[in-house]
Amino acid sequence: MKRQLISLIFILPLLCLFFSSEIYAQDGSGKLYGPSKPEKPSPPPGPPVLTFGVEKQGKLNPKTSKSVSGSLFEEMILNANSEDSLTFRVESESGNPALGLKILDKNNKEVPVAKDPSGNFKIATSTGGLPANGKYRVRVIGALTEGNALTFKLTVNRLGLTTTAFSQRFTKIYNNYRDNDPASVQATVAKLEELVKDDPSHSTAFERLGIIYLEIRKDYEKAEWAMDQAIKVNGEVRIRISYDNKWRQLTKLRSGEIGFEDKRNGWLRIKTGQVTLSDAKDKEVALLHGQQIQELSKTLVASNNMITITTANTRKPYIFAPEGMRQVDADLIVKLIQNHVVGKATVGDLR
User: Fold this and answer.
1) CB-CB contact of 113 with 102 (8 Å)
2) Residue ranges of the domains in the chain?
3) Domain boundaries 162-235, corresponding CATH code
4) What secondary structure does DSSP assign to 34-98, as a single string?
5) In sequence order, which residues have a C-beta less than 8 Å from that of residue 152 and are 6 or more positions away?
6) Quick one: pLDDT at residue 12?
7) Which residues on adjacent β-strands are paired with residue 154?
8) Kind of pairing, strands 121-123 and 84-92?
């Protein structure tokens, strides 16, 4: 009897161990394979993330969409900055104009929006931008009268910086600029280049870049690029010039030097379709529109580069010189007037 009890004492634990253990198989390589474990269920997909300029499709569906106050909505995620100037375009297959838009911040606070005449939604805060940098929930909202699902498309476009953000950044850059300090010039150029990259729709940064490239850095290729961009976004460029009070040519003075008899310093301002000549105090001396200009020519007088503009309604042509009377400056002026004021087809032969 004792022998049987002793046998049971040893055998029972072994049997328990055998039946409670997992069984593993071994292949020819010696690798053990155990029983497969059940996979954890995947978490439900989150709201789609919006990308600037990329159309995102969604669907208001009575069976799957969430509802609030009797209207259905679908939600998407937007990551944006407070400086961004944004527009939101919502379109549906049926052209349903009743689709609305709501933006909520991380605290579930609604960001005011307004619909403009073109049908785009814009942020209607005091700055024209979002309250802060970060993640926002964008809801497309609508009521379905017939109970059928409605497919829509949402596009978020980034136009650049808000007017407030651009103005603040440009003012700070301008106030810290010192044209007699090389380090300041370098820092200013870098900041202005970054600013025009962030928002190429404002002219003032291009205008200031053009002046620095032309007058300080003597980089005429970049000066032409910046000035071209400034004019294209409805700005103007300003170039220092000199001229005779009676628009006479350069002549030999009593001192023996070549110059203007009654010299004046001033400004040449170029914008789309017009050229303005003004004095040193920026008082307008002549305003010329593109259709008035009959001939635009460049002349060389004793190694000084001059520009002549002949118009249809004045007896004398307007003769002036870039401040340094250099050829590169004169070439730049002629190109800008050709491209933005008169058009290449109507420019006279350059001498």
Assistant:
1) yes
2) 56-160, 162-235, 236-351
3) 1.25.40
4) -PPPPPPPPPPP-PPBP-TT--EEEEE-TTTSEEETTEEEEEEEEEE-TTEEEEEEEEETT--TT
5) 57, 58, 59, 60, 74, 90, 91, 92, 93, 96, 99, 140, 142
6) 47
7) 56, 90
8) antiparallel
Whole-number Å distance between alpha carbons of 309 and 333: 12
| pLDDT, tens digit, 9 for 90 and up, residues 147-194 | 688 899 999 999 999 999 999 999 999 999 999 999 999 999 999 999
Q: For residues 88 and 156, is the Cβ–Cβ distance under 8 A?
A: yes
Question: Considering Cα of 189, then 191, then 195, then 197, what sign does the dihedral take?
Answer: positive
- Are 56 and 140 in contact by the 8 Å Cβ rule? The answer is no
Q: Encode pLDDT of 289-335 as tens digits.
A: 999 999 999 999 888 999 999 998 888 999 999 988 899 999 999 99
**Closest to 236 in 3D by CA, of 152, 132, 340:** 340
139 neighbors 71 (Cβ within 8 angstroms): no
Give the CATH number of domain 236-351; options: 2.30.29.30, 3.40.1570.10, 3.60.15.10, 2.130.10.10. 2.30.29.30
- pTM to 2 decimal places: 0.78
CB 267 within 8 A of CB 240: yes
Return the CATH architecture of domain 56-160: Sandwich (2.60)
Return the exposure string of 16-51: e unless at least 16 CB atoms fall within 10 Å of the residue's CB, then b. Answer: eeeeeeeeeeeeeeeeeeeeeeeeeeeeeeeeeebe
Q: Which of 130, 340, 348 is nearest to 224 (CA)?
A: 340
**Local structure of residue 106 (DSSP, 8 states):** T
